[in-house]
Amino acid sequence: MNGDAVSRLPRVTYSNLYEDFSGVNTVLDRVIPEVKGRLGREHANLIDGKDNRGGETYLAPCPVDRSKSLGTFFKASSTAVELAVEAAKRAYPNWRQIGWQKRVEIAERAAALLEIQKFEVAAACLLEVGKSRMEAIGEVEEAIDIIRFYSSELALNGGFARAMKRAQEREETIDVLRPYGVFAVIAPFNFPVALSIGMSICALLAGNTVVFKPSPMGGMTGRLIANCFMEAGFPEGVFNLINGDNETGAALVAHPGIDGVAFTGSHAVGMSIMRGFGTSGAHAKPVLAEMGGKNPTYVGASANIDIAISGMLRSAFGLQGQKCSAGSVVFLHESVKVEFMEKIEAAARALKIGDPYVQDVFMGPLINESARDRFLRAVEQAKAADGIVCGGALLTGSVYDNGYFAQPTIVANLPDDHILHRNELFLPFLTVRIFTDLGDAIARGNAVPYGLTAGIYTEDPDELELFLDTVEAGVLYANRASGATTGAWPGIQTFCGWKGSGTGSKGGLGSWYLPQFLREQSRTIMR
């Protein structure tokens, strides 16, 4: 296909259902083998606009076929971390002073470049994470929209400068939002493009400079993002990439030259950053963290069961359940439990599991050994309570011998206080709970440390109102076939974690996220 034909292809979002994506698949059929052919290459860090190989090398295995390597990466040494922070500090004054209009111009060029490269980046995402085709291309589309949405928000608000009232005629006051300095951006493996770009572009648009550390499983897309930003015209030192593990991230956060942290990952790590970085030194520093969830769905007596099954399958088992918003627990009204369980068991068994290079594969592999071991432990805990309904095994034979492919697993009849109902697993693992009173069910669903997303299926307006008024979560969905608890999109749904799911009161993808990378300054001048 030529460029014009590609531009006319339908856009893939997380809400797409029943659309014809044959043209998209035709392009991916061509691009995925091309990107596969580049596996195993060396990927240097990027510091001050130049390649940097300071640090020990490591190989990142391909989760679909762990006998193959995504490439060779460099765990940034302490010297490399120092160089990256110093480069960002040097670049900060000019970047801050360049003006918001110029920053928007460069960001929009990055979005245009990413749109041109989206199939290549999606193929890298598919290979790196084990995403299905539509999940991978949808993530890159989301990243493009993220850049454009936040650019438009900055322009809409005039760079966040506002004239205030006058106390007297000769007095003029302007209220402005100003950048902090150097932000550390630490991203997870599961959305290596959208989450990395979302945190980074907000910091950059606000006038901060960035030292970006992707997941050790996300270095390939991390370098593609860095290349895109450099090509778009971000000046040297404004955006720096260092690879590595948790030790590298800890060294970055501990550096005294870091003025703020944007983090997405586990609750334990996020709270560690909050307690250490956020309150260390002479003054508090901002920590913007999204830290997972245990996201309930409520299926009422009046629910359309087929729609509920569709939404639960996509939320519980899409990306192998490796989403902070995954639908990991479902509350069923007593009257629908038999029909729901029969249908979801059959639907889960019918999901195709395998190499996501294949068009109709729904579930790929778990990301690594840690996820595999966590899955096996959860299965043993469920079996000990006589709770397995279906699934619960790792697959073997053929393609399955090269990665960690888990069956979608559904567990019922666990005690109400069982740990599997409470802990985030990050697995294709759904627990089932029964209710007769929705208010009581919501109270039980709220009684967890998290508060990210929640969903409901009901035709009863009173039940819907009760759900909206009493659920303790930042993202709510009702009667959504495309995802019970998943599928937020920039400018459409915000993504804010309550309680242990986030450190801020304002979430990503919405109008109030970008200003969190800025601090307020009042300027009163006598004329």
Which stretches are poorly predicted, pLDDT < 50 over at least 5 residues? none
Helix content: 25-40%
The CATH class assignment of the largest domain is: Alpha Beta
Average pLDDT, rounded to a whole number, is 95
| Structural domain tally | 2
CA(first)-CA(last) distance? 62 Å
Global Rg: 23 Å
Large-scale geometry: globular
Model description:
- Helices cover 38% and strands 20% of the residues.
- The chain has 527 residues and is α/β, with parallel strands linked by helices.
- It has 2 domains: 3-39 and 78-291 and 505-526, Aldehyde Dehydrogenase, Chain A, domain 1, CATH 3.40.605; 295-489, 3-Layer(aba) Sandwich (Aldehyde Dehydrogenase, Chain A, domain 2).
- The strands form 6 sheets. Strands 15-16-17-14-13-19-20 form a 7-stranded mixed β-sheet, sandwiched between helices. It has a 5-stranded parallel β-sheet with strand order 10-9-8-11-12, with helices on both faces.
- A hairpin with a 7-residue loop joins strand 4 (55-61) and strand 5.
- The radius of gyration is 23 Å and the shape is globular.
- The N and C termini lie far apart (62 Å).
